[in-house]
Amino acid sequence: MMTPYQLTTIYVSQQKGNDNWPGFYPEPTDKNQGPLKTLEKALEHIAHMRSFGMEQPITIRLVDEEYCLTKPVVISEEMYGITIEAEKECVVSGGIRLENFVNDTFNGQDCFSAPIPDGIWFTDLYVDGLRADVTRYPENGTLEPLEVENNSIQLDASSSWFIAKKEDLEVIKTLKNFGDCYISYLHYWVDEHTPIKSYDLETGKIEFEYPSRFTIEPTHDRAALRYVIENVAEGFANPNEWYADREKGRVYYIPRNADQTPETLAAYAPVCSQLFLVEGKPEKKARNINFRNLTFAYTKGEYCSKGLEPNGTDESEGGFASDPQSVCFAHGSVSFQYAENCEISDCTLRNLGVHGIDVKKGCHRIRIVNNKCYDLGAGGIKIDGGAAGSEVWEHTYGNEISDNLIYHCGRRYLCGCGILVKHSYENTISHNTIHDLYYTGISVGWVWGYQDSITRDNLIEANHIYHLGQGKLSDLGGIYLLGKQPGTVVRGNLIHDVTCAHYGGWGLYTDEGSSYITLENNICYNLNCNCFHQHYGSMNVVKNNIFVQSAECPVRMGRHEYHVGIMFERNIIVSHGTPIYQVGAFDWQIDGFAHVLFADGNLMFDTERETKVTRINDREYSLEEVRTELGLELSGMVADPLFVDMKQGDFTLKEESPAWKIGFRPIDMSQVGCRKENM
Fold this sequence. Notes:
About 5% of the residues lie in helices and about 35% in strands. It is mainly beta. Among the domains are: about 5-95, so0334 like fold; about 95-135 and about 235-270, no CATH class; about 145-235, Sandwich (Immunoglobulin-like).
């Protein structure tokens, strides 16, 4: 007979288990032995063992192919030294499977339908492993208002209502469930979503449940309210669309292919917002909790911004239709707080409502490695510790995010980042592959300007980041940096195919106050704005990078400041009919240009015309003129760098390349992105 002192593995099976059994065996035996039924009971056993001094590492193995939750599993500081893993394969599900689908017709469309179980309501649906599409009006394009509450172009000039145009109002009057619809719109760098608080079909006034985070002034392209109405019964028309009819108590779904049948359809309605909460205390951390070889799926996507400024101060009891950036205050499906020495590895996170993983205050040595994250409502991985001036036990530092495949994110909240690190230091973010997002790939830092920041000494290395923006949002980058970050290094990253809506589709982006950062050995190409863009900052070193194939000037500095913002050295910079450097809007005086930028020893080339290094007002400057009048590029060169095949993205330098003369060192991209073969 096994005793607790010999115990190293506890088995859990919802299908075959019993919480009155000890959990020593994966299958029931004829001696009242077998797996436990619930994770909660397994964790309770472990906490009891720890209280008696039994310290051996323990593995909890999930025996079934699916383990369903109706509320998050909480792992406290009393439960430590635990690995939770699948016996073979296991989906930890925050949803319930909808049953009894039949052939049906809705809105004139052949479809499948099923009863909605009593006591639940949901705004996401996952069918056969994919997110189903929400219905909308109009089917294509957007609507524009006749009038909005606040016509100011100030960024924070929020509005809580608008007046619909007459022709749109005529359609709105025909919608049978307009009160159950919600309004969604994109502007600046965010997408905003709100239920409808009230509406007047005579005046056309539509009031938001959550006011806009930013101005929606209609004549300003970056700000303007161009909206769609979602969850529209009359919009139910296309494959993979779904609609839940509250009055009938049924959910309707149009199959996306002929292989789907009512009998085989696996449709999940999420009922949990989160799956696991690893939560210690400031004085006693949760520790040594590991998740391995699991799939996390089907969480709720409902989220309202809590009315906080970017610095975290509470500005109201109500909410807004969006966070100020990056869905920054939202939760993850797996969350850590006051935790140390924990790990998520070799897991899949898919079909989730908001973020995948959330590392909060008081965490260190959290490893997130070798995971696959896709079809997420917002971003992949978020880290957010205590800000500058916080108590030391709130600091979050020394974590690793490596070899993760993060893609197809922002499927409900478009401005989610692949990886977001706010107030945190000494983290490693390396060898991740991030693609198919509508906003930024990796974002690090959370202080706008030159105020004190806790962010420092982060390494962002060898990440492959591509297909971002996709023309949806603005002011984004492959790698986005913010605030003072001494010791932060951005090295060996490959960034390409970034496209914005109105402005700001950048490769490397040092935003407000970015300072003391080294950016080296990166390759950025095929951007619809600049390869490197600095809003404003101080003493950033940019060296030995390759910047090519940008629609605008390859390098731009935004703000006139009387200190050196960037030191550019030994880079290869190729333009295509534009000057190499842009400072401001080309309207600065010579002294301002020389103050903000120090550039020397760079290799520059224009593929379409004689190379011009910069422009000030209406005058373009050659290399010789930049040297004599601005004192820049004294050892720089203008020459074709002689890439092996620039058009095909091969930036290997030929032996006869002039880049060797400026001391350029080869950039090895053979190990960029995820190193694990099955990624």
